[in-house]
């Protein structure tokens, strides 16, 4: 029972004690993954960048620093109303300036135009998508030809949590996620081991093929 409740809070934190604890966990444990996802995306000053499952906003905060061109745009989406609120508070100056737009929505139904995004990143996110194929296909739709998507995770930790039945079904498995990307039209799909601040993590790359 506790594992199922934890899994639900990790996938969609709520306005509750559990949601607050998960938010603190994200801030403490996800920062390295968020910052490295941004770094590995090779964001350019004028890019339009999307983060899926932005959580409290750490990755968006890091990415915003790189979008120094007036044409640079940042978009965040999250299924959790609580995380949408937390990120809105953290990034209120970027929201006021018009550089950042946040959407409270499902990854399978993005309020974005076709072929409009240069870079996509997400961290500890895809395992909570109800349908990997629908999520991957929707991301492929909004990405420009040749656009790059980068996801980061700590596979050892995710695998351990899956063994405790915290993760829903088998969606956490990188091979299933990468297969969904391939089926949705992505190419150059690969997973690499990386290190940062004495932490080993995995980065999954994919390029939108049109």
Automatic annotation (TrEMBL):
UniProt entry keywords in alphabetical sequence: Transferase
Pfam family, one: Methyltransf_25
Signal sequence region: none
InterPro entries: Erg6_SMT_methyltransf, Methyltransf_25, SAM-dependent_MTases_sf
GO molecular function terms noted in the UniProt entry: sterol 24-C-methyltransferase activity
GO terms for cellular component: endoplasmic reticulum
SUPFAM superfamilies: S-adenosyl-L-methionine-dependent methyltransferases (SSF53335)
Gene Ontology biological-process annotations: sterol biosynthetic process
Superkingdom of source: Eukaryota
Name the record gives this protein: Zgc:194242
Source organism (scientific name): Neogobius melanostomus
């Amino acid at each position: 029972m506790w594992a199922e409740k934890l899994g639900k809070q990790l996938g969609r934190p709520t306005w509750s004690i559990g949601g607050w604890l998960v938010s603190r966990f994200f801030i403490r444990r996800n920062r390295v993954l968020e910052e490295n996802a941004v770094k590995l995306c090779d964001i350019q000053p004028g890019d339009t960048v999307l983060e899926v499952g932005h959580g409290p906003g750490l990755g968006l905060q890091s990415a915003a620093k790189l979008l120094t061109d007036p044409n640079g745009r940042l978009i965040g989406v999250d299924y959790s109303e609580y995380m949408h609120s937390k990120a809105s508070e953290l990034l209120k100056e970027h929201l006021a300036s018009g550089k950042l737009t946040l959407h409270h929505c499902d990854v399978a139904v993005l309020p974005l135009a076709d072929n409009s995004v240069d870079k996509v990143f997400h961290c500890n996110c895809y395992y909570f998508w109800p349908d990997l194929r629908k999520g991957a296909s929707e991301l492929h739709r909004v990405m420009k030809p040749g656009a790059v998507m980068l996801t980061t995770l700590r596979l050892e930790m995710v695998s351990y949590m899956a063994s405790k039945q915290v993760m829903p079904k088998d969606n956490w498995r990188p091979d299933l996620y990468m297969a969904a990307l391939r089926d949705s039209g992505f190419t150059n799909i690969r997973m690499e081991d990386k290190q940062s601040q004495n932490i080993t993590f995995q980065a999954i790359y994919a390029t939108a093929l049109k």
